[in-house]
Amino acid sequence: MSQVLVVNCGSSSLKFAIMDGSGAAPLLEGIADRLGSEHSNITFKFNGQKVEQPLHEHDHKGAVTAIKQWIDDHKDLNIQLVGIGHRVVHGGETFSQSVLIDEAVLQGIDDCSKFAPLHNPAHVKGINEAQALFGDLPHVAVFDTAFHQTMEADQYLYPIPMRLYREHHFRKYGFHGTSYRYISAKLASLNENFGSQNTLIAHLGNGASVCAVRAGKSVDTSMGITPLEGLMMGTRSGSLDPSLLSFISDAEGISMKQALDILNKESGLKGVSEISNDCRTIETAQAAGDDRAELALNMFASKAAKHLASVATNLNSVDHLVFTGGIGENSPVLRDKICERLKMMGVRLDQNLNQTCPRGEISQISSDTSSANIWVIPTNEELLIAQDTLSLIDKH
Ligand code: AMP
């Protein structure tokens, strides 16, 4: 069967997977880490084994070369790569769907770097290196922002002088779009009326956001021009009074950029709990009676519920509420705390189903009296990237 190499380039890491479009587990998965440092390494997960090796070249090129070498060394697996799918964080207003990459597209991705200075330049690097080594294959870009390009102006504009939007494209873009599109497609396959229904999706992971989906289209989401807006996250503060930025900068004698770094990297669950950004660690601390952990989890749930209620104002009803992402899929504690705060919507969890739903599977966890179906649906952004890549290759 035809396979796709799915590539997700960060500034110092490169995640990858080789998979077909069927939904079967990837043939190979892995991550190249600490790129840019002499301790860079690459881990291959294959056939239940995990192999870690140092990189000879400590950059994105070194990572892509190692992946190609791995494929060449495993000829017996008969890997038939037909294309490469690249995850791209920011597509601005230029990209509302996945596209085959040519020079103009690459330039477009580069042009969006001002909104995602850590991500888009890394994507461009990764695409360049992959094209150099796998030049004979088609390359496809799949954008985190694309799904939200259906939002109306009254949702995506910030209430700031319009010239700032006209001249600089400062607006809400939203992220996690590939995950929301995947979940929407799953729900559509499970509900024949999905095309006329209303859905709230909470993608809760280290990054977290929510989305309101009307008839399969994003109508509002919590993240903004960058993934800092909206919910409290692992290390990100989410929304707060923008004046705080200048207060922090003045009080600490640091630049605005450094203050922004605090909001991006030192805040959220990590900042409040003073324990970790990792939900599992915080839940363990809470269970052992740690008050800071309890506070961090309550704040996380409260912000998630508030943003769900906020984006729900775009819907006439809530037919489905979906939890996904590492926390959404695996934390009954937080699902319970969030649903508890959404009682006014008529949302009611079945406590037993919430506690016992099996990991990695689609489950319904609502009680019979709930106004909305509550779901846990594991997301699979890589699969959607592979499927988009295959379908664009087919079309062309
Ligand atoms: P993601 O960014 O989607 O990979 O999600 C990462 C987050 O999911 C981290 O905060 C993890 O602690 C959290 N997570 C993963 N498994 C569990 C679990 N069993 N219980 C609570 N949180 C979890």
UniProtKB/TrEMBL annotation:
Site annotation Transition state stabilizer: residues: H176, R236
Gene Ontology biological process terms from the UniProt entry: acetate metabolic process; acetyl-CoA biosynthetic process
Active-site positions on this chain: D144
Name of the gene: ackA
Protein's name in the database: Acetate kinase
EC number: 2.7.2.1
Cofactor remark from the record: Mg(2+). Can also accept Mn(2+).
GO MF terms held by the record: acetate kinase activity; ATP binding; magnesium ion binding
Family: Belongs to the acetokinase family.
Transmembrane segments: none
Protein's pathway: Metabolic intermediate biosynthesis; acetyl-CoA biosynthesis; acetyl-CoA from acetate: step 1/2
Cofactor dependency: Mg(2+); Mn(2+)
Binding-site residues for Mg(2+), renumbered to this chain: N8, E381
UniProt cross-references to SUPFAM superfamilies, sorted A to Z: Actin-like ATPase domain
Subunit field text: Homodimer.
Binding-site list for ATP: K15, H203, L204, G205, N206, G207, D278, C279, R280, G326, I327, G328, E329, N330
Entry keyword set: ATP-binding, Cytoplasm, Kinase, Magnesium, Metal-binding, Nucleotide-binding, Transferase
Location of the protein in the cell: Cytoplasm
Known role: Catalyzes the formation of acetyl phosphate from acetate and ATP. Can also catalyze the reverse reaction.
Catalytic activity: acetate + ATP = acetyl phosphate + ADP
InterPro entries (alphabetical): Ac/propionate_kinase, Aliphatic_acid_kin_short-chain, Aliphatic_acid_kinase_CS, ATPase_NBD
Gene3D superfamilies xrefs: 3.30.420.40
Binding annotation for substrate: R87
GO cellular component, one term: cytosol
